[in-house]
Every structure is written in C-alpha cells, then in structure tokens.
Amino acid sequence: MTSVMSDLPDPAGAASAPVPPLLMPAAEPVSVIMPVRNEERYLAESVRHVLSQEYDGEMQLIIAVGPSRDSTAELARGLAAAEPRITVVDNPSGLRPAAMNIALRACRHPVVVRVDGHAMLPPGYIRTALATMQETGAVNVGGIMAAEGTTAFQQAVAWAMTSPFGVGAARFHTGGEPGPSDTAYMGVFRREAIERAGGYNEQFQIAEDWELNHRIRQGGGLIWFQPAMRVSYRPRATVAALGVQYYRYGRWRRVVARQHAGTINLRYLAPPIAVGAVAAGALAGLAGAAGLATGAGNWAGLATLGFVVPLGYGAAVAVIGARAARELPGRAAARVPLALATMHMSWGVGFITSPRRLVSRAAKGRMP
Fold first, then answer.
1. Is there a domain that residue 125 lies in?
2. Domain, as residue range, for 128
3. Is the pLDDT of residue 126 over 80?
C-alpha cells in the first residue's frame, strides 16, 4: 500500500522484463511525475529508464524534490540541465502527496505517469498503459508491484508480500487477470480525472494513492489492473524497517476507512483481529498461570487455555513457512514465519491504535 520519501519501499536493483505490447496506441503526449527525497543512489538510473521508454509521443518528466540528506536536489538539477525534457520543482514539505500536486500543476500533457524515484520502468511500460487506456476507457491503469529480494530476509518478505497469506489478495501484489480494480500501483492517469477528483489529499502520509483512486471511482472513473505492467522493487531489509512500514500502513488504512465508509473488508480487518485474539489469549493464559501458581480454582486451569490462540497463530505461520520451502531456498523459507508475523502484527497494531486526529475528515484534496 505513504510518508516522506525515505519511507518508501527500497529500490529495485534492475528493471523488470520488457512489457509486451497490446496494440500500437496513438502517441499521446505524456507528463511523467516523480516525487523524490533522499534518492541520490538511484535517481539517475530511474530517470534513464523513464527517458528510454519505447514510446514515440512527446514526453515531459517533472521531478518534485523534497528536502534531502544527500545530494538528490543537486543531482536532479544536473539531470535537468543536460536534458530539456526534465523539469525540477521544489516540494518544501517533503511529503509525497504534496509533491504529486506540485508536479501536477507543472504538467503540460493530458496523460500523467506517476513514477517513484527508485522505480525502474521496464521497456514498453508507458506504451502498454496507453494501449490499455484506449482499449478499456480506463482513466487510470496500473500493474504489478513485483517484490524481489536479494538477501534471505528480503526474499522471505517478497514471498510473503506476493502471497495471500501476507497482505491479502490485492492483484497488484499477487497478480491475476486484467480487469477493473479499486486502485493501481503508481498509475498512468488521464490528467482530467485527477483534476476532477480534486488532486491528492495532502493530509495523507500513507494510502494517498488508494484514497485518490477511491474518489476517482466515486466520480465514475474506471481504474484498470494490467498485469503486463510489472515493476520490480526491493522489500525492507530488516525486521525493524518492515515493522515500521506495516505499522504505518495499518495506521493510515484506518484513516481511509473512517473517511470513506464501506471501503473496509475482511482483508484489512484480519490483522487487527489477529492482534486482538493473540493478545487476549496470551493475557488469559498468563492470568491462568498466575492463578495456578497461587492455588486458585478451576477458572485458572481454563484460563491457561488462552495460550492456545498465540500458539495456534505461531503454528499457522510455521506451516505457511513450510509451504514456502517448496519455492524458496532454505534460509529464506526459514524467515517467512518471522516476516509474516511482523507484517500481520505491525499492521494490526497500527490499525487499532490509529488516532482520529491524523487527518481532518473535511479534507478531500489540495489541488486547485
């Protein structure tokens, strides 16, 4: 599923395989918007993958630069000085939805391609998106966020993220057939659809893309999933980083649920339910164990049965890890239970503890 740019998923080491063309689209001019912060290491390569797209239409690339601890701003301006298709705009807040709105105001073209500063677009990505838009009438098209790891832990997280056991059955994680969708990974938009929806809600630090797509759909716009558009990225490399990421996901997904009634489903509720059940079971078990130690009555023995819940959860993720062993090297498969538990528990705690003050209910967008 926001956030300052340093909170985004780790970058892909290489681009995905070329995207197969669907049909030859009319070469509509496109504006590519790229919010960046602390992207010195990958920015030049990401820009190269954008500008080398196999697409005949006119292209404009707008890099919205937030405050960085490295030389991202200097690098972006150097790239712009060498390439007339690149424009650099400042994003003083450093927040991603603000960067998007600032970049949108600088767009010249009717099609907007949203790209992360660490994403390596595969050849044919834009061409396939335009073909899909023309074929389906969609106002936003996105593909697969293909998690790929290099270390054993990253491989475990990648397996979990692309499995229904990790983050549910969202097609941009797990794949599937082309068709209408609630949201899109990154996205190739009709600019007018974003403008009609009011732009990105700048109070959202996470899930701003889902929230915008929800408003687009409310206005009658069609969002389309196109699995031929596949972009690789690297998952978080440590348990702590993964936990923070999913805590923030859960925290902000609760905000979306508050602002847009009826958008929550079992996939999003499963982690907080699991957290509640595991916590209640563990507390009951501990109370029972303490009661037995002090000679309490039968209730204490019954209360210790609460340990069945956390033990059962642990057994379940262990079984899933064993299943992963069919597809992963042993060291990676052994880390799948840890990756799953971190994702589930962090998301669940974030969802449960998400405060109402995070975002004003009245705020719908900030793009004039």
1. yes
2. 5-235
3. yes
Q: Is the pLDDT of residue 337 over 70?
A: yes
CA–CA separation, 151 and 336 (whole Å): 13
Q: How far apart are CA 259 and CA 255, in angstroms?
A: 6
Please answer whether residues 243 and 341 qualify as being in contact, where contact means their C-beta atoms are separated by less than 8 angstroms. no
317 part of a folded domain: no
Mean pLDDT of 199-209: 87
Residue keyed to tokens 């060291």: 331
Residues whose CB is less than 8 angstroms from the CB of residue 304 and which lie 6 or more positions away in sequence, other chains included: 284, 285, 288, 289, 292
Number of domains observed in the structure of the chain: 1
What whole-number distance in Å separates Cα of residue 108 and Cα of residue 311?
57
Three-state SS across the chain?
Answer: CCCEHHHCCECCCCCCCCCCCCCCCCCCCEEEEEEECCCCCCHHHHHHHHHCCCCCCCEEEEEEECCCCCCHHHHHHHHHHHCCCEEEEECCCCEHHHHHHHHHHCCCCCEEEECCCCCCCCCCHHHHHHHHHHHHCCCEEEEEEEECCCCHHHHHHHHHHCCHHHHCCCHHHHCCCCEECCCCEEEEEEHHHHHHHCCCCCCCCCCHHHHHHHHHHHCCCCEEEEEEEEEEEECCCCHHHHHHHHHHHHHHHHHHHHHCCCCCCHHHHHHHHHHHHHHHHHHHHHHHHHHHHCCCCHHHHHHHHHHHHHHHHHHHHHHHHHHHCCCCCHHHHHCHHHHHHHHHHHHHHHHHHCCHHHCCCCCCCCCC
CATH assignment at residue 118: 3.90.550.10
CB 49 within 8 A of CB 120: yes
Over residues 148-189, the pLDDT tens digits come to 888 999 999 999 988 878 765 566 666 678 899 988 889 999
Within-domain flag for 250: no
In the numeric block, which tokens belong to residue 72? 């991202």
Residue 165 located in a structural domain:
yes
Mean pLDDT in residue range 227-247: 90
Determine the average pLDDT of the residues in 222-230: 93
The pTM assigned to this predicted structure is: 0.77
